[in-house]
């Protein structure tokens, strides 16, 4: 295998990903067909141009691939090689000047547009000399220069956007990683606070019951009954804590919606109260409704903007999710049916307006009086204090 055919981590392919550059790798090679079409279209093409053209194509493809796959700092040399290759083959086949244009355009992928302009200026001087020797019209020279500059500018802007997109995705991955790490640490602290003292109490009472098993069996039995009561209480607290960890909340779903949509190029805005406090039995289904609506926008809407508005009053809860996509949302799909069932279980109503070509609006209204507030469970500290007092 030729050294360097595998993309390096510090290459453009390694930094931006093959998925972002796949179409460009293919499209920018289609013009090679013109190397044969234009000479054969002449009345008396001859064959003097054929072998230089055929031999130049593998060289060009190698230089072109290496400009993607090798280290970015060496890209200038591969682009310069394309430019020189165009000058060499151009006297035999005028279309080979495309090698030179390709090298100048592709160098615009560099982060510095000033370096690109300097490179184009340096390549223009020998290009003008070659064009004058071949009696190329001045208007054609200007046209080729304009094509080179405009194509290079478009290339530079596109690569800059790709770099920003990759940086944004990396930052989002880092945010998710840090959020996961913080959640693990929180769960560890909660479990330590929840079970640490309880298990210590169980250990002490078990040791006491073992020592009293022969000397005072009735008291040992009471101690073991206390161990059983404390263990059951701890098990109930663990189950309640796990249920709370699994429960969705609206604030987290708003953050997740922003990450998902903005990563897909959809502008996201949200309007919600600074302190959003809802009964847990109500907030979890509403968060799932929001998640389903945002997922539909991401997959099907083809929208460019999305807005979520949440209003909570003493009378009820209102949430409106709207986008400017293609509309035409099916009113009885599985996702929509699930959203309706969740809202209906809360005693509320869900309405959808989705005219074709005019976006979609999902509106949820739930009366707060329809949902009983969850009873406040004792905190781990209070529960442990109760256990210690009862044990004493």
Question: What is the topology?
Answer:
Layout: H1 12-16, H2 18-27, H3 34-40, H4 50-69, H5 75-89, H6 97-106, H7 113-133, H8 138-215, H9 217-246, H10 250-263, E1 267-271, H11 280-301, E2 305-312, E3 316-323, H12 334-345, E4 349-353, E5 360-367, H13 380-391
Parallel strand pairs: 1-2
Antiparallel strand pairs: 2-3, 3-5, 4-5
Spell out the key features of this protein.
392 residues; Single alpha-helices involved in coiled-coils or other helix-helix interfaces; alpha+beta; 5-stranded mixed beta sheet; disordered C terminus; elongated; 3 domains; Heat Shock Protein 90; 13 helices
Q: For the report, how would you describe the main beta sheet?
A: 5 strands, mixed
Instruction: Give the beta-strand count.
Output: 5
Number of domains: 3
Euclidean distance between termini CA atoms = 79 Å
Q: Which structural class should the secondary elements be placed in?
A: alpha+beta
Count of DSSP H/I helices: 13
The outline comes out as elongated
Order of helices and strands: HHHHHHHHHHEHEEHEEH
Radius of gyration: 35 Å
Instruction: Please tell me the overall pLDDT.
Output: 75
Strand ordering within the main sheet:
1-2-3-5-4
Fraction of residues in H or I helices: 55-70%
Give the low-confidence spans: 371-392
Beta content comes to 5-15%
Report what the structure shows.
The chain is of the alpha+beta class and 392 residues long. It folds into three domains: 12-136, no CATH class; 171-247 and 383-391, Single alpha-helices involved in coiled-coils or other helix-helix interfaces; 250-370, Histidine kinase-like ATPase, C-terminal domain (Heat Shock Protein 90, 2-Layer Sandwich), CATH 3.30.565.10. The protein has helices at 12-16, 18-27, 34-40, 50-69, 75-89, 97-106, 113-133, 138-215, 217-246, 250-263, 280-301, 334-345, 380-391, and strands at 267-271, 305-312, 316-323, 349-353, 360-367. Residues 371-392 have low confidence and may be disordered.
